[in-house]
């Protein structure tokens, strides 16, 4: 299976973990913003570990953790810029977010492969 497909699968499972954790925490009446943060961290930890193991087949080191965290931060800012720009053109937030997803996926894959997990 090509690496990009593995990247998409790992990312999808990470998103499911994030959303399920959020749902469980909210069902337990956890405060909204701590629940959002905790669920994001749960998805991120899975994402980091399994991209290292399966997508990029690279050992998880302090350097790769810092770099991958930077990639996630860059992609977060890129997503915000895309959503903000498209919302200025009357796109709904959800539509704008959906449009940003393939761009973020490609960016994350390329930065992960050629920088974050490069030995």
**Net shape:** globular
Q: What kind of oligomer do you see?
A: single chain
Main beta-sheet annotation: none
Spans of 5+ residues with little confidence (pLDDT < 50)?
Answer: none
Q: N-to-C terminal Cα separation, in Å? A: 22 Å
- Fraction of residues in helix: over 70%
Order of helices and strands: HHHH
β-strand percent reads under 5%
Write structural notes for this entry.
- With 119 residues, the chain is mainly α.
- It is built from 4 helices and no strands.
- The protein has helices spanning 3-27, 32-55, 62-88, 93-116.
- It is globular, with a radius of gyration of 15 Å.
- The mean pLDDT is 93.
Question: What tags apply to this protein structure?
Answer:
119 residues; mainly alpha
Task: Give the SSE map.
Blueprint: H1 3-27, H2 32-55, H3 62-88, H4 93-116
Describe the structure concisely for a colleague.
The protein has 119 residues and is mainly α.
């Amino acid at each position: 299976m090509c690496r990009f497909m593995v990247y998409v699968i790992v990312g999808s499972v990470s998103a499911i973990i994030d959303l399920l954790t959020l749902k469980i925490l909210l069902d337990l009446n956890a405060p909204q913003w701590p629940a959002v943060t905790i669920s994001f961290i749960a998805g991120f930890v899975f994402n980091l570990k399994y991209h290292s193991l399966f997508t990029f087949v690279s050992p998880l080191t302090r350097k790769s953790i810092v770099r991958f965290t930077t990639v996630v931060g860059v992609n977060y800012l890129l997503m915000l810029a895309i959503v903000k720009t498209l919302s200025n053109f009357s796109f709904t937030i959800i539509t704008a977010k959906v449009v940003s997803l393939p761009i973020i996926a490609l960016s994350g894959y390329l930065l992960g492969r050629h920088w974050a997990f490069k030995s």
